Amino acid sequence: MKPLLSKTTKPFIIYVLIILVISIPVYYIVVDTIWKGELDEHNGTIAEKTAYEFNSLKLSDQELEKSLVLWNQIQPGTDIKKALSNSAKKDVFFTVEKQKTFVSQPEIERYRCLMKVIYINKKPFLFTVETNIEESQETVAAIALVTIFFFLLIVVGLLFLNKRLSASVWEPFRNTLDKLKTFNLNSQTKIEFDKTEITEFEELNRSLRKLIEHNISVFKTQKEFTENASHELQTPLAILKNKLDILLQSEDLTQRQYQIAEEMNRALTRSSRINKNLLLLAKIDNSQFDNTEIIRFDGLLHQSMEILQEHFDQKNISVDKNISVDIKVNGNSGLTEVLINNLILNAIRHTSPNGSISVKLTSCVLEVANSGTEKLNTELLFKRFSKLSADHKGSGLGLAIIREICKFHQWKISYKFENRLHIFSVIL
């Protein structure tokens, strides 16, 4: 993730860079056009001045011819010769590239040329003059360098200003964020945000204040409901179960009556278990558990394995344990114990008699694998009240509870079927 300022600064810098790249050829075209215009005017002035000076000398035709020959020899870049009948009557401007012949290291340069008919001694002459315009490229290069310098100056200044401004302008936002990070819904304490002169941050604080107040109210209502439901439902269920236990011990029951009472007892036991699991899910959803304990995960795992040993023995299941020592995690010990028990009980239910279960624990993963014949339906795997097999006698909430506990601890639960083994992995 990147800070907000970097996301706004980067596009701005890219935009400025694109404009800079585009501006360089534009500079060249503009400067070159201006330069050519100035040179055309300059060349026109030279032609007119040359004609004026020759006319002012009032030379004879022979002297004029000699002077023109001498002029063409000693004056580079100009040429004066008699105009032909088909000579252009209008001034002709054009650009040529040619090699310098009067320098030690010949090089190709551009020249701006003018062909103009001038009159000396009232006779037409074709005057040609060419002026070097290579300096325009050097001018553009200088402008480009200056532009790049100012671009770098803008970028450095922008980064510096953003860094300085972020410390002051964004301070109210960071204060709000810090308070939200430390907010705990269980404490049901309202957050008092600092006053700020920035309209957007003040509106954000007001919206957050209303949202938190609403969430506290809803959380309080849901918590009261779960507490009331836990008390109001468990008490009559316990009384009913106690009465059924007494009834089942009665010697006056017929065989048919005993079967009916036993079925009622099983249904009541399952209802009680479902009620407890639903209340547990509601408490997890409402964040009514603390997750700041330091848990000895390996100790909880050994404890659960010992408690469930009777279930292994009933189905004659062989158990392979590979549990690392001194594995500590942050979380809630009660929920972690429920997760471990549900994972192992789920493995026991889906393991045939005389099957095998392996439990592996490392510093980063808990893996429970059991023998099986076919892959479970992954679409229904963690859904509430889903039936994964016909002989499944659980409440249908075990894996859903496992998933919610993993979400609460920010762990990841996954399932795969490999080598005829159902493998559930919890990445810690």
From TrEMBL:
Catalytic activity: ATP + protein L-histidine = ADP + protein N-phospho-L-histidine
Keyword Transmembrane helix (UniProt): yes
Stored SUPFAM superfamilies: ATPase domain of HSP90 chaperone/DNA topoisomerase II/histidine kinase, Homodimeric domain of signal transducing histidine kinase
GO MF entries: kinase activity
Transmembrane regions: 12-30, 140-161
Keyword entries, A-Z: Kinase, Membrane, Phosphoprotein, Transferase, Transmembrane, Transmembrane helix
InterPro entries: HATPase_C_sf, HATPase_dom, His_kinase_dom, HisK_dim/P_dom, HisK_dim/P_sf, TCS_sensor_his_kinase
Main enzyme class: transferase
EC number(s) per entry: 2.7.13.3
Signal peptide residues on this chain, from the entry's feature table: none
Any one Pfam family match given in the protein's UniProt record, by short name: HATPase_c
Domain Histidine kinase: 228-428
Identification of the protein by name: histidine kinase
